[in-house]
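Input (structure):
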């Protein structure tokens, strides 16, 4: 197996820590992966893209085990991102750095047993603001790849909003597993149509 092939196949399973996050969808996938590792049962993702306010606001909230103050200090410290010096990766500090570089801001709150909430904003028209990326793929991948957890995804623009809730999908599916290939196709279409219609998005 060639090195390149290994690299790409790794990327589809879970993001290698050295990969630069090129778009918001990949940031979301990466950040929510932390929530899953923290045994979250419900992850709430909120993305508000506003031309009027010239911002993109991203909030990711989970009910996982949270982290200690000591860990919290380390994950947000931009000067200790070298992985040789600490046993944590780069996902959170990379999001913080990307948001701040794009005229935005970053904040995180967490506590043991209290879950975690991450808030990142970007200036919409800033040159360094990453594109949205394949947000539908991210939401579908999260839902079908983690059948035990649930996900709420709210996509908001100045035109309107759409909220996806995997719990409602599972209710309708009854005994059909959420990772069933027909469900995957259905979910993609459902998300695409609803976001396009409700949020005035041209094409996703
Ligand atoms: N949602 C979360 N809940 C609990 N702990 C978290 C969460 N997100 C991050 N952490 C802790 O912070 C560490 C750093 O996260 P991150 O920057 O994404 O790097 P990595 O995931 O590669 O370790 C994680 O290893 C984990 O211990
Ligand atoms: Mg991570």
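Output (sequence):
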């Amino acid at each position: 197996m060639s090195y390149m092939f290994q690299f790409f196949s790794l990327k589809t399973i879970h993001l290698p820590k050295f990969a630069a996050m090129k778009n918001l969808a990949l940031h979301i996938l990466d950040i929510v992966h932390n929530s899953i590792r923290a045994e979250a049962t419900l992850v709430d993702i909120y993305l508000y893209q506003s031309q009027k306010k010239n911002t993109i606001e991203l909030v990711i909230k989970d009910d996982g085990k949270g982290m200690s103050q000591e860990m919290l200090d380390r994950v947000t410290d931009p000067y200790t991102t070298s992985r040789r010096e600490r046993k944590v990766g780069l996902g959170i500090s990379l999001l913080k750095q990307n948001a701040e570089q794009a005229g935005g801001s970053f904040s995180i709150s967490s506590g043991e047993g209290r879950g975690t909430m991450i808030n990142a904003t970007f200036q919409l028209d800033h040159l360094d603001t990453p594109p949205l990326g394949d947000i539908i793929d991210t939401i579908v991948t999260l839902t079908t790849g983690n059948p035990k957890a649930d996900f709420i995804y709210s996509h908001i623009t100045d035109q309107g909003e759409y909220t996806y809730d995997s719990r409602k999908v599972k209710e309708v599916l009854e005994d059909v597993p959420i990772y069933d290939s027909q469900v995957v196709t259905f979910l993609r279409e459902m998300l695409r149509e609803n976001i396009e219609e409700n949020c005035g998005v041209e094409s996703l």
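Notes: The CA atoms of residues 55 and 123 lie 5 Å apart. The mean pLDDT is 87.
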